[in-house]
Amino acid sequence: xxxxxxxxxxxxxxxxxxxxxxxxxxxxxxxxxxxxxxxxxxxxxxxxxxxxxxxxxxxxxxxxxxxxxxxxxxxxxxxxxxxxxxxxxxxxxxxxxxxxxxxxxxxxxxxxxxxxxxxxxxxxxxxxxxxxxxxxxxxxxxxxxxxxxxxxxxxxxxxxxxxxxxxxxxxxxxxxxxxxxxx
Length: 183
Ligand SMILES: [Zn+2]
Ligand SMILES: [Zn+2]
Hints:
The protein is of the alpha+beta class. The chain is about 35% helix and about 25% strand. The protein has a four-stranded antiparallel sheet. The chain has a two-stranded antiparallel ribbon with strand order 5-6. A two-stranded antiparallel ribbon has the order 7-8.
């Protein structure tokens, strides 16, 4: 009786019908030279392959390879979203002014620099896009607070080229005449 039980566990139950990733086991094949059982597996795409039990059980093979690209792009989309989420928290609120000061790298003229997100290279533009939507073509995202490092959408507004030049001049004045600002 006990011998029978031992034999049963040494010859595991059939894997037919079991799913391993994209594989479904559809039949049993000749055992491998090592004695390990081998199984005919059908991938969700229809491809068939004979795989050793261990390959299936350990998850070494999850598909015929057809899903590798899909999984990779899914993973990179996930990584992209995590990176974006991190980036959108990468500031410190300034309690007096309400500015959200960018903690990442900086680009020209003290603007926060970002890369790899919908073509935006300026942090405040990325924040605007995230909170308010893509800026219409030809419009600039400008600062009410005259703090280029600020990414608080509430301190940003859309402006034309003329507004932009005006804004730059205002910032230029702020740069070498700081205390006189607002006079
Ligand atoms: Zn496949
Ligand atoms: Zn601000």
